[in-house]
Design brief:
about 450 residues; alpha+beta; 12 helices; about 40% helix
Length: about 450
């Protein structure tokens, strides 16, 4: 076997044996994958309170629920290119290292075979539930594979063990020890009857744009100029996962009644900061996804004024920590607009962050929403503090020293600020029905189409 990583193509072929050829396109099969992960975690593992087990995944951790990451022992084969994308990736675990989860359990990261495709794969072995999930197939013939019979799982684990033995006998033995402690493989004949109907139910509630795509082979990685977008999607996933874990642990502490008030205040601040960063990287994920594969609009009647009112308290707290006052000014009796309310909320938070970033303490931020013909006009206006403010402090343009990171991000090395580029911001808002404009100053304007009554 060439290279230094484990090759999974033979394993996928084993899982696909005796299966009919798939008929999905790329976007559809990725939706299937994410729905399968939600079904596995939310409907199967968490309700059964699984406390012990082993999972093997490529090219990303796949599991993301904090309580599962804390109780199950993981092996992750990830692309080495993740470490080369951005400076923040230095925080990712290195090849072959064991990573300590905050709850005390470990997972191990190893290098994926350089020429292996980046289709996701997950094998899960617990005393209660055992299965393998994978995506497989060429374009237009894609499919989600699920197998839970002991013969197929045993063959798959034996294949991983043989290849791992060639690379690192000590790791191969460790994997075998972990599997032996879980006992023999067994069949749960009810699992397919539970998994597939629950997966179908999940699909009905998922947005069509939830996908995660990475290049499928080394030739594509050399020739496709959008490779970094796939890696950026992967990186945003890896960043959000530990943040979600930290937030879960913090919220478990907040429920206690024996902590001093100053500690509770700090814990709530950490909770808010984690939520803000999770939302930021969620926007980065969607911006990269939109660049790689434009999605059809899924707009519905949306009460923009109500959304702004509901989000105002959280924004006020966020800005008050930086000494910035928020004012909300809404015209009465405004009509509904056409947008996607679920994705619009974090996008509006991103606009607030963009308009307020770098404002000095004592500044103000005003949100104005009013009618503008067949549209509603949302303005975000920055006001300097009462003292005289130099023009450089309130400039709204991306700084001249900002380095462009692909088509999605801009990076200011003087402040360490990483945010969406103006081009990515415009495209994200366009997918939500909005038309974005940034003026010469810091102020922003977004127009949303009115949802006229039909009948």
């Amino acid at each position: 076997m060439s290279g230094t990583g484990l090759h999974f193509e033979e394993l996928r072929q084993r899982l696909a044996a005796d299966r009919p050829i798939g008929r999905c396109d790329e976007a559809s099969v990725r939706r299937l994958w994410w729905a399968a992960l939600e079904t596995l975690q939310q409907d199967l593992l968490i309700p059964e309170d699984v406390q012990n087990g082993l999972w093997l995944a490529a090219p990303l951790p796949a599991l993301y629920e904090p309580q599962l990451l804390g109780s199950l022992h993981g092996w992750v084969w990830a692309p080495e290119e993740l470490e080369q994308l951005l400076p923040v990736s230095a925080a990712l675990p290195g090849t072959g290292t064991a990573v300590r989860h905050p709850t005390g359990r470990n997972y191990r990261r190893l290098a994926l075979h350089p020429e292996d495709c980046r289709d996701p794969l997950l094998i899960l072995i617990t005393p209660q539930l055992q299965l393998a999930l994978a995506l497989q197939g060429s374009e237009g013939k894609r499919q989600l594979l699920m197998s839970s019979d002991p013969t197929t799982l045993g063959d798959s684990l034996a294949l991983i063990g043989r290849q791992l033995q060639e690379l690192d006998p000590a790791m191969a033995e460790q994997l075998q020890d972990d599997l032996r402690q879980l006992g023999p493989l067994h069949t749960d004949e009810t699992l397919p009857k539970r998994f597939w109907p629950q997966l179908a139910e999940r699909l009905t509630t998922m947005a069509p744009s939830i996908t995660l795509q990475t290049p499928t082979n080394s030739a594509q990685r050399e020739s496709d100029p959008q490779d970094d977008l796939g890696l950026l999607e992967a990186l945003s996933h890896e960043v959000r996962t530990p943040l979600a874990t930290i937030r879960t642990l913090i919220r478990s502490l907040i429920r206690r009644r024996d902590l001093p008030s100053v500690v509770m205040k700090r814990l709530r601040q950490i909770d808010v900061e984690c939520s803000e960063q999770i939302d930021r990287f969620g926007l980065i994920f969607h911006a990269a996804e939109l660049q790689r594969q434009p999605q059809p609009s899924n707009l519905a009647r949306t009460d923009l004024a109500q959304i702004l009112e509901s989000l105002e308290p959280a924004w006020t707290n966020q800005l008050e920590r930086r000494g910035i006052e928020l004012k909300l000014d809404l015209e009465a009796g405004l009509p509904l607009v056409l947008s996607d309310p679920r994705r619009l909320e974090p996008m509006l938070g991103g606009l607030i962050d963009r308009a307020s970033r770098g404002l000095p303490s004592g500044s103000g931020l005003t949100l104005l929403l009013g009618a503008a013909g067949a549209r509603l006009k949302l303005e975000i206006l920055a006001q300097p503090p009462s003292r005289e403010t130099g023009p450089s402090e309130l400039t709204g343009q991306e700084p001249s020293q900002t380095a462009k990171v692909g088509a999605v991000l801009s990076w200011d090395p003087s402040t360490g600020s990483l945010q969406l580029s103006q081009q990515a911001t415009r495209q994200l808002l366009a997918s939500l029905g909005g038309r974005y404009r940034q003026r010469e100053d810091r102020n922003l304007t977004v127009f949303f189409p009115v949802a006229f009554e039909t009948g």
